[in-house]
Amino acid sequence: MIGFDMTLLALLMVAGVALDWLLGEVSRWHPLVGFGCYVQWLERQLNRQPGSYARGALAWSLAVLPLVALSVVITILLARQSFWLAAAWHVVLLYFCIGLRSLRDHVMPIAQALKAGDLAAARNLTGRIVSRDTTQSQETDLAKAAVESLLENGNDAVFGTLFWFAVAGGPGALLFRLANTLDAMWGYRTPRFLAFGCVAARIDDGLNWIPARLTAWSYALLGNWRQARTCWRTQASAWSSPNAGPVMSSGAGALGLALGGTAIYDGEVEERPPLGMGRDAVADDIVRAWKLVSRTAMLWLTVMLTISMLMTMLYTTYVSLTMGGTHA
């Protein structure tokens, strides 16, 4: 039974990723967009200055817990009606939570614009996916920003979601994605969010701790292993995020690129710690980074399927030997 459950989970995971790859992100009425509008309203109601840890915790609870609880209830009700309805529900939840195809659709046009020499278009496209100022950025700056976004979101939008789906099915993926979205919206160290967004940031850190390190190991395994491990060991701790540091330093090292460094946020120049080692990023490196992220997703789907098949074989062998012993 354990092997069967693992096989089912792996197949549902593959189905969810396949659905995302075939359909891509919903262009209208995406549930996460609706969630974003809701939490913006919630923040305006509860985030009175000065900020409060307690109000931030309340806001997080009101934003996440009802939706996750509803997804669990729906899962239980569908399972009582039909095995296939429940399975489809898990797949749909994963589809709405994962962002593999979305990553490609957002970054590949940047690479194409840079290759065509259309710097204005590349600046505009990059500005849609990063919070830094891109209005004066050159090709290297834009390529670096796109690669950094790919590496970090390879964990946040892809592998972290797959990890929590493996742990708790569709509701687990939903919990992770909502928590990650709140961190992206509230987890800033600004006067407005320093206290209010602290709970969202810490919960996301906790949920992301294992997935981030598995992602970092995967980047190293699929790229320059020695360099990725060196960069992870020597650079990750310099980043304020305990999870972005390992992921991005390992990814940059795996690709042989020098990332991090100077960036402009809200009109102010910020000197960020270095990431990776090697040459500066160019347009083709966006494609390389995308391939690294997609191969990481495929690696873990393969791992899940392999583990499930092995467990099924072991369980079948165990049952066969037990029944054989009983008949004897």
TrEMBL record:
Is Membrane among the key words of this record?
Answer: yes
Residues spanning the membrane: 57-78, 83-103, 157-179, 298-318
| Alphabetized PANTHER family for the sequence | COBALAMIN BIOSYNTHESIS PROTEIN CBIB (PTHR34308)
Originating species: Herbaspirillum rhizosphaerae
**Where can this protein be found?**
Cell membrane
What Pfam families does the annotation carry? Answer: CobD_Cbib
* Top-level taxonomic group: Bacteria
Protein's gene: cbiB
Q: What does this protein do?
A: Converts cobyric acid to cobinamide by the addition of aminopropanol on the F carboxylic group.
User: What name is this protein filed under?
Assistant: Cobalamin biosynthesis protein CobD
Membrane topology field? Multi-pass membrane protein
What family does the entry list? Belongs to the CobD/CbiB family.
Q: In which pathway does it act?
A: Cofactor biosynthesis; adenosylcobalamin biosynthesis
What are the entry keywords? Cell membrane, Cobalamin biosynthesis, Membrane, Transmembrane, Transmembrane helix
